Automatic annotation (TrEMBL), chains A, B:
One of its GO terms (molecular function) is 5-amino-6-(5-phosphoribosylamino)uracil reductase activity. Coiled coil: none annotated. Signal peptide: none annotated. InterPro entries: DHFR-like_dom_sf, RibDG_C, Riboflavin_Biosynth_HTPR. It comes from Quadrisphaera setariae. Pfam families: RibD_C. It comes from the Bacteria. Residues 9-189 form the Bacterial bifunctional deaminase-reductase C-terminal domain. One of its GO terms (biological process) is riboflavin biosynthetic process. This is Deaminase.
Amino acid sequence: MSQLLKVQNFSVSTDGYGAGEGQSLERPFGHADPRQMAGWMFATASFPGRPGPGGTRGLDDHLVRDFHHGIGAEIMGANKFSPHRGPWTERDVERWQGWWGDEPPFHTPVFVMTHHLRPSFTLSDTTFHFTDAPPAAVAEQAKAAAGGLDVRLGGGAQSIRSFLEADLVDELHVAVVPLELGAGTRLWTSAEDLDDRFHREVVPSPSGVVHHLLWRR
Amino acid sequence: MSQLLKVQNFSVSTDGYGAGEGQSLERPFGHADPRQMAGWMFATASFPGRPGPGGTRGLDDHLVRDFHHGIGAEIMGANKFSPHRGPWTERDVERWQGWWGDEPPFHTPVFVMTHHLRPSFTLSDTTFHFTDAPPAAVAEQAKAAAGGLDVRLGGGAQSIRSFLEADLVDELHVAVVPLELGAGTRLWTSAEDLDDRFHREVVPSPSGVVHHLLWRR
């Protein structure tokens, strides 16, 4: 197992949703509050978007630190890339280059899975490619582009599920946040869903989130 | 705080000892069994000395992964470098180049604190330097050599204590292993000893060790 396909720092609600309903430009996580879903990461010293020094250096931080470590490519679903639905017009393409500004936190090739293709583009040291290939083919493309390093599967929940169904995921770190969403995009009904195929450690953090660390049996 | 001085993956017994009594070539941890002290690391996929694939990818592994991450130099005490006591003869110097064989796991400059100096030497991409300077001066040397990266303080317990006394440590990860030693080189009487100066999270691992994650207040 030389190159792994990994899910890192993926937050879900206690009822297993990775995002709420009704994603839009103003509400990238739908009716879920991003500060509630991802706040545990924002508080850490190693969060890539941290504006200045400070931040915690405990368990949450040790997990967030792993984000860039040995990663050579990212795969993400269309809804992680944008709230846009349907085909891209030329004007859409000009206006939308992801949520992350001029310095996306990936620093690698990124493969966006979508039925609505558009040309690749580069922001700083991140290049976004668009592909409508199935998970196994995208995993292969991403591994080839990763220069021997691991591949991060960035989400959302629907993309992770499709990779799990195709048995392409080697390792997952899922953070369960103390929040019920009731609806949205679901990763799992229960964390135990994956116990037949993955080892799983459950590690409660002092911050209130519960980390689930899974790796292939 | 651009460059940190960090203690990583340092194992102590429940009564706070980093090593037992009577270190020798055959017993690098004195009367403490290295497999009991460091076994939690040996089991992980990311342990630098792992002979082949496999290993766990849970909490212990996520902490061990951090070992090389952003580290540009290591500082260690004389007893971590060797069981040798007293001045080095030319023959000793020829015969002893550390415990780690031809490929030491550091891959950076290493500063060995000792009253018994000997010439610097290089094995693969690790260069060992020997210094009798006090902790503050060694920390400065190591930071200058680290190329902007962090510095690892590798131990043993006595060296870590001397750096703590001089208030030079920014972060510590200490793994308390379920084993009482009764005697040896002590890191602390109780983990609470440092609570006036450090935040501390206590994270029990499914493996049986309890991780203490400390960072400066």
